[in-house]
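Before we proceed, please read the two lines closing this message. Report back on whether the C-alpha cells fit the sequence:
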Amino acid sequence: MRVFPVYAPKLIVKHARIVLNGVIWVKDLGRLEFEKGRFLLPRKSDPEVKQAVSELNQMINQQLEAAKSA
C-alpha cells in the first residue's frame, strides 16, 4: 500500500499505471483500489471520492489515447 499525504493526481495515476493492481491511501480521500491500471469506485463513498476516482480514470484514458496516437 502506497500512502499519498496530498492529492496529487499525476503522481497517483503514474503509480497506478506502473503497478497495475493494488491499493493506495490518499489523505482526505481514504483508501482507493485499482485494478488493471483503473481505479475502482468504492461501494460507499462521498461525492468528492467519486469525483476524484472519475478524474483519475479520465487522466488514465487521456494518457492511453495519447500513447496510441503517438
Q: What stands out?
A: Residues 47-69 form the longest helix (23 residues). Helices lie at 9-19, 47-69. Strands lie at 2-4, 22-26, 30-35, 38-40.
